[in-house]
Amino acid sequence: MLTKRIIPCLDIKNGRTVKGVNFEDLRDAGDPVELAEIYAKSGADELVFLDISATEEKRKTLANLVRRVAEKVNIPFTVGGGISSVEDVDILLKNGADKVSVNSSAVKNPDLVNELAAKFGSQCITVAIDAKEINGEWMVHLVGGKVPTDLNLFQWAKEVEERGAGEILFTSMNNDGTKAGFANKALAVLSSELNIPVIASGGAGNMQHFCDTFIEGKADAALAASVFHFKEIEIKDLKEELRRNGVEVRL
To answer: Is 250 within the bounds of a domain?
Structure first.
């Protein structure tokens, strides 16, 4: 039985870690290199870095940050934000990233997923999907949730799996930053329809929420930010609680 993964997420803006609610009202959460090192030592299974204000000019800055993090951590980490080409991915992997996450660029150019999977292998390619439940239907949104599309979450997830994605990072915009729990019903549907791992994101507020997303949502991994950044939950304590609830984790 595969162990479930706990993944702190570092949203990066102008070289700093930030956190907001429903993708807005950002506040500073610290230096990403320092935080990455702390998480690696405290039992995190992986890290995710998302440059939430990425532009082409910042690619070199992000690559430099990736290299500095890679020197400090011994766990896999995924980097996303503004990645739109094979060249972008090549730069990040050469600087120490283990995986990359693509989101808007995959929606705009679905063939990009095929290209990246063919070039680097599916195990390197995470497709991040930000979706919002509107009138009972989960719809994909872009640009940090600001731009709606006519794509259905489940259909899009299935398509990118078929195109070669190695895992899905699903963020519920309805739940993000609310600390009211993950979108477990949607996660359970995703997990049942896909053959690749699904990472739950958006809504972590307490340890029970993590238990619920693994048991009810059938998620393979759970990602969170503020509860870790602001020391509301310690990863070691969380993993012990998950074990007590019958969830297999790496201690």
So the answer is: no
